[in-house]
Amino acid sequence: MNDRILGIAALALAVFMTAAGWGIEAPFAYEPVGPRAFPLLLALIIGLCGLWLVYKGGHAVEPNPAGANGRIALMVVFVTIYAFLFQWLGFVIATSLMTVFVGRLFGGGWVKCAIGGVVMSLFFFVLFDKVLDVVLPGGLLENLI
For the chain, what are the domain ranges? Predict the structure, then answer.
């Protein structure tokens, strides 16, 4: 495998993100840019990186170390579960759990991952929900936050 294959995959992802993000519209105009800007900007960045890899690629890529593919698959499972439980559990609980499990995949201890997950999710909740006015779901903690 080489970098060009990754570049082609990045281009395909950028096309998918553009197609999916193009139809995003807010029911009312609350800001000049709108919600579609974020996925389209990410698609542009991913697409440019993909083009660079296709153009400059061709270098051999080392295979993943033993056990890495299993951790990658588990991360995909965790992200999928996170997406399904995000609204019901709320941002703080879902993000805390996600951070703990991903941290454990990378060899973190239970206590450090739990503290980091809770602190990070609370920090980002306050930052986005309270400071930047990006509404995040409260979920099970709706009455507390």
Answer: 1-56, 68-141
